Amino acid sequence: MTDRPIPVTEDELHAYVDGELPAERSGDVEAWLAAHPEDAERVQSWRAMAEALHARYDQVANEPVPQRLELERLERQPRRWVYGSIAAALIAFVAGGGIGWFARGEATTRAPLQSFTEDALDAHRLYVVEVRHPVEVPGSERTHLQQWLTKRCGWDVRAPELASSGLKLVGGRLLPGPNGPASFLMYESASGERFTIYTTKAATEATQMRTTTLDKDSAMFWADRGVGYVVSGGNDRERLAQVARAVYDQVEKSGG
Amino acid sequence: MSAFRQSVEAMIPALRRYARALARDADIADDLVQDTLVRALRSEKLFLGGDIRSWLYTILTNLNKNRRRSLARRPHFMPLLDNNPDASGTEAEGRDIARALSTLVEEQRAVLLLVVLEGLSYREVADIQGVPIGTVMSRLARARAHVKASLEGERPALRRVK
């Protein structure tokens, strides 16, 4: 046979399935498949795979778009939507009891923020029990502390004023975070309860506020403009929510 | 609403589908879509024509890459919960394909999903990933071989190195 067709390559089989094969070659491929059952079986399995993918995921595209993805919202209130969701998170958090992750009223899920939130809670637990050396730079040197942490971290680190929540800045320190440096600020009330604010670079630009609880400590965390914030405290959830909100308000204002 | 915004809006369902398959977690997936939209809206003025669809897939693919990179740096990481609230009648099959996807490396999974699920051309995927078409094709071939092996319950085939 002199007009024996050029053998079909694996690339051509894929292109055939994906509709990328030049029309004039498709006859050759079909003839090849008829003569090569093993290749025909593979092509068939790729088609079945495509069907399985559509069967599994097309329903996501058919779901109504969640409110938080509406362009109007994202555009008009690029950050206030976070704020709105805070209220929901706080209510769920305070009402929910036990373990966190109520932010969206959905099934419990892990989020990327979870990893540094664990770091933050670890740091919180490690340092809040320190009596003599809880911080590297004391709160009396607030300006220096802010400048130093801002310089080392690369984003604007400001120690919020939390006097209205009855909290005084103890001071802060620099910590290793999952994506580089992290800043760590500690506050204390007259009765000795301590709260910490941890910030580090977040993988996500912005998220809703979420909550988590680990043993006797709780944290509320969110991301804003690429920076992740974790406010940790004891197990008084209402109190923590109040402090987290005060922190959020000031971060929002300073960045606005 | 501008034509730009309308085009972006029309893409949200497809972006959600792609993100869900890519991240395999409903929450993370919608975070990715949200970040993609925020970024797109912010860059409207920087967008000088071209294909909005490809551009959005590019943003989402890159955001996911960054997200995974930051996770990879963690010495330990907790397993993702198998939460598929949207699993339908073909639940078992859906779980199988989701599990098979999870065995793929990031670039291969993205190629497979962009081509098969989202119906993009090899050329478009090459542009999205910033690689030559040949690389897209070899990633696609490897992804299909892996998923096939995984669905058939084998260990991912090493013999098909190409």
Q: How is the topology of this model organized?
A:
The complex is a heterodimer of chains A (256) and B (162).
Chain A: H1 10-17, H2 23-35, H3 37-62, H4 71-76, H5 80-96, H6 113-128, E1 137-138, H7 142-153, E2 167-177, E3 180-189, E4 194-201, E5 210-214, E6 217-224, E7 227-233, H8 237-255
Antiparallel strand pairs in A: 1-2, 2-3, 3-4, 4-7, 5-6, 6-7
Helix pairs in contact in A: 2-3, 5-8
Chain B: H1 3-23, H2 26-42, H3 52-72, H4 91-102, H5 106-117, H6 122-129, H7 133-151
Helix pairs in contact in B: 1-2, 1-3, 2-3, 3-6, 4-7, 5-7, 6-7
Sheet having the most strands of chain B: none
Strand-pairing-aware structural class of chain B: mainly alpha
Oligomer: heterodimer
Q: Tell me the radius of gyration of chain A.
A: 27 Å
Task: Report how far apart the termini of chain A are.
Answer: 77 Å
Q: What is the total tally of β strands of chain B?
A: 0
Radius of gyration of chain B: 16 Å
Return residue spans of chain A where pLDDT drops below 50 for at least 5 consecutive residues: 78-84, 94-111
Number of strands of chain A: 7
Question: Average pLDDT across residues of chain B?
Answer: 80
Count of DSSP-assigned helices of chain A: 8
Question: In sequence order, what are the helices and strands of chain B, one letter per element?
Answer: HHHHHHH
From the N-terminal CA to the C-terminal CA of chain B, the straight-line distance is: 48 Å
- β-strand amount of chain B: under 5%
Show unreliable segments of chain B. Answer: 73-89
Structural class of chain A: alpha+beta
Helix content of chain A: 40-55%
Strand content of chain A: 15-25%
